[in-house]
Amino acid sequence: MSVKTVGYIGLGKAGASMASNLPRSGFNCVVRDADPAREKEFASKYENVTIAEAGPNAFKDCDVVITMLPQGKVVREVVLGENGIAKGLKKGCIIVDTSSSSPYDTQSLGKDLADLGLVLVDAPVTQRRLHDTDIGEATLMVGSDTQEAFDRVLPVLQAMAKWVFHMGKLGAGHAMKTLNNYTSAGSIIALSDALVAGQKYGLDPVQMIDVLNVGTGRNFSTSDSYATDALPKKYATGYQLALLVKDIGISKELFEKVNFDTDMPDLILKYFKEAQEGLEPTADHTELLKSWEKRAGLSLKVGTPDGSTVTALKK
After folding, report:
1. What's the first-to-final CA gap in the chain, in angstroms?
2. Which of 12, 67, 108, 205 lies deepest, with the highest CB count within 10 Å?
3. Does this chain's domain 5-169 share its CATH topology with 175-296?
4. Residues in the active site (predicted)?
């Protein structure tokens, strides 16, 4: 059965960005957000988007409902809480959680939804470059207990992403997501250390990132978030530090559950929680660099790395 109508819950920065690809791909969409202004703004841009009515029956005509919410416990409340949407969904409807959730919370929710005749698929998001989510070039990591459910939602996922990986059973997508963010977080700490130590030595941090981007130290932060927002001191990637701390907590849980001993999650959490002190709860994750500057007793040179310091020397 082809999917014609898609529900979408959660129109924050990431949610609205991902959801925007669906009406542009021809899907009829029913949207909901905790902020009515976000709903109205999103619906005003597309003819085939309607705002969900109040109550659990708002998504009764949807073949697929996508959630993009802060974490799995919020997803459970939205789906199975007192006013949860599960009560109004038709049998066989597939709920796709694209949030950064614990794989264990996802597996538990999947069992409860199966008892109601509903199917849960996890499909969290990552991206190679900032704003890939705006243009359908994100990456989705999918967990699904059946190939049938995966095949049915695949056209919807492909409308939102350039790469779609079926990682395994339910929860596998969220496991991959947390390990992806854990790897990224480790590189953020190493890069922050390198920039302040480099400047203390006498290196130019803008040039350092240009060098890293044509060397083995290249990573998402060197090519995107630190280059576009941290060193220019814009701090506007749209990804909150609090969410990154939450994601590392999920990684720590996964390591403990699979009985793998590593000190790195606690070290990352130590640095990131220290960085949160004195910042707003909604602070962009690139603002954590301020903590490194404070500990180093310096202010990093402001600039936008763009490769110009190395391209001039190309043969």
Report:
1. 57
2. 67
3. no
4. 177
State the catalytic residue, choosing from 169, 177, 233, 273.
177
Q: For residue 60, what is the DSSP state? A: T
Nearest-CA neighbor of 93 among 70, 69, 73, 121?
Answer: 121
Give the closest residue to 98 by CA, choosing from 209, 23, 11: 11
Residue 50 is which amino acid?
Answer: T
Check: pTM over 0.85? Answer yes or no.
yes
**HSE-up of 127 (CA within 13 Å, CB side)?**
20
Does the active-site annotation cover 13? Answer: no
Q: Which CATH architecture has domain 5-169?
A: 3-Layer(aba) Sandwich (3.40)
Domain boundaries, given as residue ranges, for the chain? 5-169, 175-296
In angstroms, rounded to a whole number, what is the distance separating the alpha carbons of residues 165 and 167?
Answer: 6
pLDDT per residue as tens digits for the range 15-71: 999 999 999 999 999 999 999 999 999 999 999 999 999 888 999 999 999 999 999
Taking the domain 175-296, which CATH number applies?
1.10.1040.10
